[in-house]
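User: what does the whole thing look like in 3D?
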Amino acid sequence: MELLGKTNIDFIGKRNIAFVISSIISIIGIIGIIQISRGAANMGIDFSGGTSMQLKFTKPLPIAEARAALHKHGIAKAELQEIKDGNKLLIKIDKNTSLALGKAADAVQTAFKKEFADNAFTVDSSTEIGPSIGDKLRKDTLVAVVISLLGIILYIAWRFDLKFGIGAVLSTMHDCLAMIAVFYIMNKEINLLFITAVLTIAGYSLTDTVVVFDRIRENLHKNLKGAMHNIFNLSINEVLSRTIVTSLTTFMASVSLFLFGGEVIHDFAFALVIGIVVATYSSVFVASPIVSILETRALAKQGEKA
Amino acid sequence: MPNGTGWRISLIGIFILLSFLYLTPTLVTTLPSWWKGLLPKDKIHLGLDLQGGTHLVLEVDTQKAVEGTLDIVATDLEDTLNSKNLRFKRIARTGSDKVSVVVYEKGTAESVQKLLKDKYPGYEQSPAHDEGGFVAFDLRINDKDAQDRKDKSVQQALETIRNRIDQFGVSEPTIQREGINHIVVQLPGIKDPQRAIDLIGKTARLEFKMVREDIPPSSASIPEDAELLKERIVDQTTGAVNEIPYVLQKKSLITGDLLTDAQVRIDSQFNQPYVAIEFNSLGAKLFDQATAANVGKRFAIVLDNNIYSAPVIRERISGGSAQISGSFTEKTAADLAIILRAGALPAPVKIIQNVTVGPSLGQDSINKGLYAGLIGVLLVIVFMTVYYRLSGLIANWGMVLNVLFLMGALSALGATLTLPGIAAIVLLIGMSVDSNVLIFERVREELKLGKTPKAALDAGYDKAFMTVMDSHITTLITAAVLFQFGTGPVKGFAVSLSLGVMINLFTSLIGTKVIFDLALHKGNIKKLSI
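Assistant: Here's the predicted 3D structure for the full assembly of 836 residues, as structure tokens:
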């Protein structure tokens, strides 16, 4: 079976549209990073410090009632989120509460026990992170991000020449920024698992890019006649079905995680799904056009000299 | 058999055998009796997020340990000077690293300084100076000793906590030092985390102090050598808390480090639990002297600055046993006995991270993770079979090998499986057929050029090799970094991912190729099902 027959799509010709879309996504991603570093995004407590709990009630509990109950017991600044499946409630209290660490979780339980005596609950999970741990995790994560991106860039630099290297690095960064942009816009929590997903995609996104690059290089060496533009388009069209199929299998695995993996890794799986889609797009619409521009420019310079 | 397939088939066979060997304890609920000796017995370790439990990070307030040492030096010095009839005005710890001594005359100062030089050679003395008509000087602990004391206090705290947890009874706890002053405690499968946290976090400094009945607790000015502490009485039926203040002598008669044993007993008269304690010989002697000298007076039993009880000494108590009564339940009495037996922490600890996962959520996560994995496997298998037909089946075989080897490797290495770790395995299901997709597409292309199946296959594997390597190496880079910097669940993800990537390289380049080689060996296959 073949997914796509012989295609002849002018990918490089559409680069301007692609660049506009990708620039917007990247800018949102950069804004997201700035907001994250300012702590203004929806930060997970593993970075910001604080308390988060997941409670499982026996009966449905309207979120407004839960909020009112907490308010009544002096827990004013709490973020509540309902998990539809199984009467579950997520509660997040940041470190700027008047309650000392270790007391917030107790206070929440006491409040609910008093206010909803007929609706018993069990504590599914409870996490308390002191500010010093949050600082340490933030620092460690930053180091991890820098080192792994550096590692990938060094590998790319060794594997490709400068032009392809620039294309690969930019498209990898684009993929990371796009994931951050989506999470930032959807106000989803930025936590350690999300960063893990971003780094995983940073490593993975290269697969698709390499598939396309290898073919472009091959065709460049073959000295096919025609403009640079055409060689790039031909190469992308030649490997289009494998670019899609390779992503498709990983995509299917992540989607099943997203749909059936449970609430704990729901967002993590979501980040992977986004990442895989964006990585496929970027190998065709970001990485290749950048290299084509660089190659054309280099060629023009050579022409001037001659 | 074609050249070079023999060793590959044996290698795959050995790996399959080893994987099943290491997975047997996980898959079989009760191991047969002949399963012993060198055969592996460990199940795959589950992270706390999967089996439920509590992960704590404690910070030891090491500065307090240094201050505690200086407090002891100050008390000790008081006793020495008293016994030598050297009169002093005040000896106390000041700040975080000094004991200051104030005496009346220069002559005394000189003899005290000489005495200190012999007794505490490691400490630095400041020259004596005039302080409001008295002679004052400091005894300072040097930085190296202070550092040493801090370091030891973390080690001691770790031992004490381990002791308490062992006595509390948690199966397979992990207690480790991390960094300079952090202790990581993992309690898998614990049912009452709050109780364990209370038990671990208590400093448990037990002191016996005299009550200063000459000063009313409501008094505005409490002398420097006294302090105001409270006794909390909890009504067992109503839960109401009643606090009674007492003024106590700051200096303690006896401290908890002189205990040899502590046990829960039940008072036969009131049916109330109490904790019976036994002193060692020094403690027994001190307790005997103190009770003899203070018959009719009141003393207080103080734990971490909370008074447990303040009984009147009715008679001299020899023999070195005493009891601590208070408003105990059986559980709180049992916990108090444990921490008294295990001893006090050398310095207070603070819980800076507490992650608790209930057992039901853990089981739920395992079920859902496995379910998602199964669906992922099915989707990929169906897709690959439809898209690449027989070759797709070979790719699926590679993927199944991949998962089997990965699980085998996880249990062989004693790695910990976390929920993100399961996610990594599911992700690898997709990634493992990726490599085969790259190879197969290449083979299709070569076939279109008119090559024979064998030539096309060899060329396909050859040309796709670098591309497959690229994606694996970059993923491995991130996985390695995540392993180095990640903690808990993220580390589990990195472990599964990096092992999986390495295994995947093997199965996709060797595991599937060998099947093709075998199939094409006879040379009578004219058309490749791809």
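In plain terms: The radius of gyration of chain B is 35 Å. The first strand of chain B starts at residue 45 and ends at 46.
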